[in-house]
Structure formats: C-alpha cells, structure tokens
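USER:
Try writing one entry.

ASSISTANT:
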Amino acid sequence: MKKIFYITPVTFTGAILFLTTGCNKSDVISTTSGAPTAVTKYAKYSSATEATLFGHVNANGIPTTVTFEYGTTTSYGSTVTAYQNPVKGNYLQHVSADISDLTPDSAFYFRVKAENSYGTTYGNQISYNTKIADVDGNNYNTVTIGTQEWMAENLKTTKYLNGDPIPSDLTDNEWVNTTSGAFKISSDIYGNLYNAYAVADTRKICPVGWHVPSASEWDELLIYLGGEDNAGGPMKETGTSHWFEPNVGATNESGFTALPAGLTHPFDGTVESVGSNAVWWSSSKQDIWYWTVQCSFASTYAVRTEDKMNEGHSVRCIKDK
C-alpha cells in the first residue's frame, strides 16, 4: 500500500487529525472532542438489596467522570461512581458500579451520567423491580401474569415470618402424624415441601406483602392461561433438565417456571415424584382437605385437586393487592 509521510499534525476546528510519519492510510485516526455520549443498559441483581448497574460511555476524546444516579423515584437521590471512572478515549466503553442499599420488592430507577469539560450527558432512565427476600434471606424472581404478581420460584424459607423455625427433622412416621407445621427439603433448585399446617399457621411463611394464594386466586391464573386443560403448558419450565420426558406442551410463556419438586407420600411421608409432578398448596380449606394445583410431565393440564394436611407440597407466594 502507498505510504504517506507527514512531519507535523494538521489541526482543524474542533478536531485534530493525527498523522504519523510512515503510516498507512488505514492507520489514520480521527478524534473529535465534545460532550460525552452515555447510554444506560441494565441492572443485574446479586440479592434483593444488591445489584450491579451497567452502561456505555464514549468520552469523545476528553477525560470524563462517570457516575450512576439511582433511587426509588425518578428524582433518584443517590449517586455511585463507576469502576471505570474516569473514562478516556473516543469509543464506546462499558461502565459499571455496584450498589447495596436497595429495598426488597420495590421499584427503583437509575441512569448513567457522564461529565467532561464540554458538558454533561445523562443516559436514558431505566426502572426495575427488585427481588423479594424471605426471612432467611433467600431471594426470589417474580413475574406478573395478567393482573397478578407471582413468585417465579418455589418457596425455600426454613422459618415463619416472625423468625420461629419450621421443624424439618421429623421422621417419615412423625411427618405423617404431626398436626404442626413442618417441611422437607426437596433441593435448592426445587424449594421445600411444606405440610398444610405450615401453610395455615398464623405466623405466616411468605415474605412481607405476599401470601399463599387462595383457591380463587389459583383459578384466576389457570383461567388466564387457558383453563385447567391447557394452563400447564405455559406454566412449566421448558426442556427436560428438570422435567421427565416428554414434558408435554411446556412453553413457559407465562414466566411462571414451574418445576417438578414432587410431593410426600400421603401414607408413609417419603418424598416421591420428583421430576414428574409439581404440586402447590392454596390457603383454602375444604373440610379436612386443602385445595392444591398440580402439573405433570405427561400433559398440559394444571388441575385443581385437594389433599390432606399432612402431605408435603411446594408453595408459590402471590403479592398482596
């Protein structure tokens, strides 16, 4: 390729074209000075109170101070400096910052701010709902389906809302015969299996502002997703990483992400059906039974059934209205 030889830089208004002796045409770099460019990207949660904020900033050739503004309203109120501060150069760069003072189960707003000697640029505003946390500090994703907001994971708490422990060390025989709240650990992925005594306990097991859904609240969900014959499909996690094959009709279009945590056998208290069935308690009682909802790997059904109080099932909490 033909060489171009220059001895000194050529200066233009608002820009400097740097030409190096012996450079190729393809090596010429143009740098324009001016106010920075700023784009707010997204937040990634590490807990219900902690998140990392992300953005893109182009300093446009001038050292640029980068911060994030955030808060529970569009007035923000809090500021954190980006790890990449100050940003230099003339290309779009990733910037990020950690925050740890969020309020669980609430909206927060944030934007990136870039400032240099040419001016200040604010990125677009983004809003998120923080995760919810139970009394143990477990964090949960949530999803809005129709007019309802649900936990998108099964409950894992080992304590009632007041901090009292829920017994988990019962033998299978004790489990079948107890008349008090108890749970069995299915797994960290599937959550715990609780008996209906724990569900009905006045000390409550759902996080503040949330509750175990009633039978009518379950009915509203199932109707919204196409009725009992069809609702299982849009409720179930897709694939066979957790569900047995063939996991009929699973699309998870609702975001509910149903997982097959199984259940306890009604007569001997052992855990069974992990991988094939998901069953959740309601808070509604019918004589000596409690209403439940069940999904199966073998169908698109999400059927309302009723079970004895000493059986062990999953819990999905729903947000108070």
Observations:
- Residues 25 and 182 are 75 Å apart (CA to CA).
- Residues 37-129 form a domain with the Immunoglobulin-like fold (CATH 2.60.40.10).
